[in-house]
Structures are given as structure tokens and as C-alpha cells.
């Protein structure tokens, strides 16, 4: 995907860094910031990547601005890739797949049958106030950042949105990232699998060069 611009907002902590997708010296010095936009015209696909945390009390203004941009750009639908704390799963969730989805009412009309054909599991409702049995039930995404706020705002604005998420733990989340994008690909078929056998991992994803430094640059030789 090619970088086509950035999403200007004062809701995210400012950040600047090197090109996380550098392929060589010729593009390694390109700068990246906290919210950038990429596109893949052949698939009619646009991606917004966030690389920074939200400033306190700025979540709602960001959701409103983002969805205003979505409407103004005539996006057909929005797909949010997110996660939730694995340690807050209930017994049912512990015994099933770690992946879940959510659809806004306007999205359900178009894709609910497709989700059922994939045997995907919708995010369950849980007590709005944890550990209080007589609390009302609602959708909760603990550890999901702005996901729930963005979903609620999309419901009220009748925007077609799907949330795909995985229950994860802190640590090396590279396998989680690859699992989530394969989950997305089951639905959208962005990359066609090379094998007809669904149990064979036949998809090859390119990992960002910056992932090599996820845990630092290694131990300095002077230590030995």
C-alpha cells in the first residue's frame, strides 16, 4: 500500500519517527507521524494507521472528526481492527475462538449472512458494571481503546462499520497481528490463498522492517 497522506488531529500525542516500512537506504529516512493514510486502489482500500495514544478527554472529538471524514470521503464501509484484554474473558469466551466481530445496524443488513457462513462469533454482551449480577448487559471491549466509542458513534450516525478484534495479552503481539489480518482476509479476500485446504497457512504477509527492532537492537557486545 502506498502512503497518500496523513490525518491531521490535535487529539493524539504528537509523534515523529523514521519510515517503519523502509525497504532500503533510499526510503529509510522518510518521516512518519502519529496518524497516516495508505491506499490500495486495485482493491478500493484505504487504511488509517494510528501510532500514538490519545490525549485525555479527546476520544470523542477524534471519533466525530474521523467519522465526518469517512462520510465526506464517501467510504462504503469502515472496518476497525482492534483487540481486547484476554484476561477479562468469561468462561464461554475462554472455551472458544479468540476472535470476535461487531456490526453496526446498517452493516448487519449487508454482511450478517456472510459472517454466519464463516462461522464467526459475535462479541457477547456482558454486565455493564462488572461483577454486579443485576447490572444491565451491554457490549464491552476492555483494553480496546477508542473501539467502543467509535462503534457507538457509528451506530448513532448510521455508518456501516464492522469491528474485528482478538483477545490478546501484553508481550510479543506479532502472532496476534498476523492472526487478525488473516481473520480479516477470510472475509474480504484481499489476498487469495494458494491452497484450497483451509487448514494450510498459505498466505504470505510482508512484515514491516521496523518489527526487527520490536524488542530493541540486541545486547551490546561490550557486555561480554
TrEMBL record:
Gene3D superfamilies: PAC-like subunit
Keyword Phosphoprotein on entry: yes
GO process annotations (BP): proteasome assembly
Cell compartments where the protein resides: Nucleus
GO cellular component terms, semicolon-separated: cytosol; nucleus; proteasome complex
UniProt entry tagged with the keyword Phosphoprotein: yes
Keywords: Chaperone, Nucleus, Phosphoprotein, Proteasome
Superkingdom of the source species: Eukaryota
Chain's role: Chaperone protein which promotes assembly of the 20S proteasome as part of a heterodimer with PSMG1. The PSMG1-PSMG2 heterodimer binds to the PSMA5 and PSMA7 proteasome subunits, promotes assembly of the proteasome alpha subunits into the heteroheptameric alpha ring and prevents alpha ring dimerization.
Quaternary state and interactors: Forms a heterodimer with PSMG1. The PSMG1-PSMG2 heterodimer interacts directly with the PSMA5 and PSMA7 proteasome alpha subunits.
Family that this chain belongs to: Belongs to the PSMG2 family.
UniProt-recorded name of the protein: Proteasome assembly chaperone 2
Species per Swiss-Prot/TrEMBL record: Carlito syrichta (Philippine tarsier)
Gene name of this polypeptide: PSMG2
